[in-house]
Amino acid sequence: MISSLVVWIVGDSIKGKEQTQKVRLYPRPVRISEDGGPPRYPVKEVLAKLRAFIFRGDGVECPCCGKTFSHFLFSPYYTARCPFCLSMERYRLLCKFLRDETDFGKREMRLLEVGPDWSFQEFCRDFEKVEYTSADLFSPLAMERIDIRNMDFESSSFDFIICYHVLEHIDDDMKALRELHRVLKPDGQAIIQVPIQVPQTVERDELGKKEQEEILKWPDHLRAYGPDFRERLENSGFDVRVIPFGKKFSPEEIERFGLSSEEDIYFCTKREAEAAKLP
Question: What is the reported pTM?
Answer without folding.
Answer: 0.85
